[in-house]
Amino acid sequence: MIAGRVTLTLVPHFDETGSGPRPKSVMLTFLGIHLLGRASAIYSGSVIDVFGRVGVSEEAVRSTLTRMAGTGLLTRHRHGRRVYFGLSERLAAVLEDGRRRIWETGAVNRSEDGGWTLVGFSLPDTRRGDRHDLRRQLTWAGFGLLQNGLWVAPGVRDVSAIVEQLGLDGHVTVFTAHPAKPTEAAELVRKAFDTATIASRYHDFMEKWDAGKPSFPDDLTRRLMLHSDWLHVVRRDPHLPAGHLPADWPAIEAETLFRKLDADFRDGADRLAAETLELLPTSG
């Protein structure tokens, strides 16, 4: 159930035009790097300092923190005259999902099981808005449209939280299956997913970062923006089986680049974080 909620939470954080991650997603990346797994809250002034180095205004940072606290994603702590922000359990689950996506799941799906999750639905015109929301949620959960009213994703996907949140019990059918002749898995990939667009996002990432150090002032901000850009790519990748993708699928090269640069930036970023970020221990 948590995995479904994570997907739902992440949907609004990306620019739907595909031009890049929104400032809120950069904030999530920042919090994931510096607060996830720690019983600590961070001083708002520290966040303002770091975000100012990448061109985000103090007003925008304060507004984002306030909205996230108002929706229960952040907890607010006072120490003297200073305000600190910590992770709610809900946000910690979101960030943990992102951590697993980067370091455990990875960008390349080498599974050979061949199973697929299929979602079928039929909604009347009076629920057109719900139909639109369901399609959007399924897209962000890694599903592609196979044919009218039938969506498909590789592997076993839990969509119960999506159905529950939208109040669509009784309107949605979910099942797992394996393709059978004359249908081939490669045909499902070709029909349901825009692999050219997915590949282009990896190529764009490599074009931006292959020089090693884009124009950010230090390793702290370089690592922040590296992770933010990488999550923006992998979150929009349905993680299709590598066996049904071109041999030169760019996710492999892009992930190698990401991991190399993260290693290059990590020590400098950790040192600057220790000097720059003011943390307040919390009870957990």
TrEMBL record:
Gene Ontology BP terms: DNA-templated transcription
Classification via InterPro entries: PaaX-like_central, PaaX-like_N, PaaX_C, PaaX_trns_reg, WH-like_DNA-bd_sf, WH_DNA-bd_sf
Residues covered by the Transcriptional repressor PaaX-like N-terminal domain: 22-90
Domain Transcriptional repressor PaaX-like central Cas2-like: 111-189
Transmembrane segments: none
One Pfam family cited in the UniProt record for this chain: PaaX_C
Residues in Transcriptional repressor PaaX-like C-terminal domain copies: 196-273
Protein name, entry field: Transcriptional regulator, PaaX family
Protein source organism: Amycolatopsis tolypomycina
